[in-house]
Write a structure and sequence with these properties.
There is one protein chain. The chain is mainly alpha-helical. About 75% of the residues lie in helices and about 0% in strands. The chain contains four helices and no strands. The chain is extended, with a radius of gyration of 18 Å.
């Protein structure tokens, strides 16, 4: 259980760290098409596409597995874990931001706002979809 919580806390901070890295935001959505660890492999477009697909599937699988175990936790522990993850993420976000120059901070803040807006939009869509599905 402890290892799972540590892994979840670590996983929750990765998006913030990724945004602060050089070339952030270029992953799957344009610019660089492969993660840094694959840059030296000189992948073809097809290999890059397949790599992104596999990594996306792995992320979804990781999320599904994690969620399955989280659903087994009592509500109080799940809430405590979510709060701790949120605080950890906010702390890491602040530390990353503090490392940046003022112009980088502005860009970082804008990227973070866009990411949060997309996250809120996705949550709203999921809620709407769940309500629609429950009516059918």
């Amino acid at each position: 259980m402890r290892k799972t919580l540590i892994a979840l806390a670590f996983a929750a901070t990765l998006p913030a760290v990724a945004l602060a890295m050089p070339g952030a935001g270029h992953g799957q959505h344009g610019g660089k098409q492969a993660p840094h660890m694959f840059e030296q492999l000189d992948l073809s477009k097809e290999q890059k596409r397949d790599m992104r697909k596999l990594m996306g599937e792995q992320m979804k699988s990781h999320h599904d597995i994690t969620q399955r175990y989280l659903n087994k936790l009592p509500e109080t522990e799940r809430k405590a874990m979510q709060d701790e993850l949120k605080n950890s993420k906010q702390d890491t976000h602040k530390k990353i931001r503090d490392l940046l120059k003022p112009e980088q901070q502005k860009q970082f803040d804008e990227m973070h706002e866009r990411m949060e807006a997309k996250r809120a939009e996705r949550a709203e869509f999921k809620q709407w979809k769940a309500e629609r599905d429950s009516k059918n």
